[in-house]
Design a protein that fits this description.
Elements lengths: L3 H29 L5 H24 L1
Helix pairs in contact: 1-2
């Protein structure tokens, strides 16, 4: 059984890890966007939009 303090710490660690993974994924997608054609670039932008929104929301919460 975990204490409320431990649960809070776990949630904070999970949030930080999610932020880190989102930043890495966004950076990887953006790095390769200029090398692709317009259709692939449009799909990448469609993928980036929700990821960027989630990242902003997580950063505001922390």
């Amino acid at each position: 059984m975990t204490t409320p303090q431990q649960q809070g710490t776990i949630r904070a660690n999970v949030r930080r890890a999610r932020i880190r993974r989102l930043r890495e994924d966004i950076a990887r997608i953006e790095k390769h966007m200029p090398h692709r054609g317009p259709d692939t670039q449009r799909r990448a932008e469609d993928t980036l939009a929700p990821m960027t929104a989630e990242l902003k929301q997580l950063e505001m919460e922390s």
